[in-house]
Design goal:
This protein has 285 residues and is an alpha/beta fold. The protein has helices at residues 13-23, 30-44, 64-67, 109-119, 137-151, 164-173, 193-202, 219-233, 271-277, and strands at residues 50-56, 71-77, 94-100, 120-132, 177-190, 240-252. 34% of the residues lie in helices and 21% in strands. Helix 3 (64-67) links the parallel strand 1 and strand 2.
């Protein structure tokens, strides 16, 4: 008998939860603030009122301060520090599920989406933002080049990020209707690579991979990384670029009132007939 496939354990969620608790003592970071404001705008564009909602694993104080006027009841589900990643949500108990900058650290994202889908009532909405795509590509390239040059090998320093097309497929697999994904690319400029790394620590976004190297990073490698970063990714004024790709995802729990695509062969007029009705101009007119 074959065993069911299980998701690989990529992230040390106990370490991540510890870092997020420490980061929560600091003021809200610029990236979470930007995402929260965007989420408020996106939700305002939905012509619906939501009574019962849950904020899934958003770090810090969550989204409650931002959504106070848009959602009647918003429960904050604290970030999980276990590999099980089980949500304490009852089936069909929510009209809305939201999340900001949390799903990129999930080991079993397909399983999490299925749990959220089950927790939504028919015509309930999932709206979430996660880091993905080419996020921190400059830092990844600089670390890889520095380690290859100074140590003769490369270790995982920055977590792998999901692709936009992959996320859309996961929404469909989880049973969401009308799935939509898009990317908001944010380019932030820093005085140095070390200033970027300080920001990542404030966001609890430093390396939490299970396969991370446990020995301290060599000073020479770190300094060389900063040099390579400045050589390859500096603007004319000397400031360094850092890319953050915010993947937005939304999907609805299926309901009979939702718009559905036409079934093949159900069209009432053929393309051939439509072409015949188009008047043709005579050459030379």
């Amino acid at each position: 008998m074959t065993q069911p496939a299980t998701a690989p354990i990529l992230f040390d969620r106990s370490l991540l939860a510890l870092r997020q608790r420490r980061a929560a003592r600091a003021p809200e970071t610029f990236l979470l603030e930007r995402v929260a404001e965007d989420l408020v705008d996106r939700l305002a564009a939905v012509n619906r009122s939501f009574q019962s909602a849950a904020d899934i694993w958003t770090p810090g104080n969550g989204l409650k301060p931002h959504l106070a006027g848009q959602v009647a009841e918003l429960a904050h589900v604290a970030p999980s520090d276990t590999a099980a990643e089980t949500l304490p949500l009852q089936p069909q108990s929510l009209d809305l599920a939201v999340s900001a900058l949390a799903f990129q650290f999930v080991n079993d994202l397909p399983g999490l989406l299925v749990q959220i889908r089950r927790a939504l009532r028919p015509d309930g909405l999932l709206l979430a933002a996660m880091v993905g795509g080419d996020t921190l590509t400059e830092l990844r390239q600089s670390f890889a080049a520095a380690e290859a040059e100074c140590e003769g090998g490369v270790s995982p320093r920055v977590a792998p990020f999901a692709d936009l097309r992959d996320i859309g497929g996961l929404l469909q697999r989880a049973g969401f209707a009308l799935p939509v994904t898009d990317v908001d690319r944010v380019v932030v400029r820093y005085a140095s690579a070390f200033a970027l790394m300080q920001d990542l620590r404030r966001m609890a976004a430093t390396n939490s991979l299970v396969e991370r190297r446990r020995t301290p990073l060599r000073r020479a490698t770190l300094l060389r990384m900063a040099e390579i970063y400045a050589e390859r990714f500096a603007d004319a004024d000397g400031r360094l670029r850092a890319t953050f790709d915010i993947i937005w995802i939304s999907g609805w729990a299926p309901h009979e009132s939702q718009q559905k695509p036409l079934k093949p062969g159900s069209a009432t007029a053929s393309l051939e007939a439509a072409v015949k009705r188009v008047p043709h101009s005579n050459e030379g007119d």
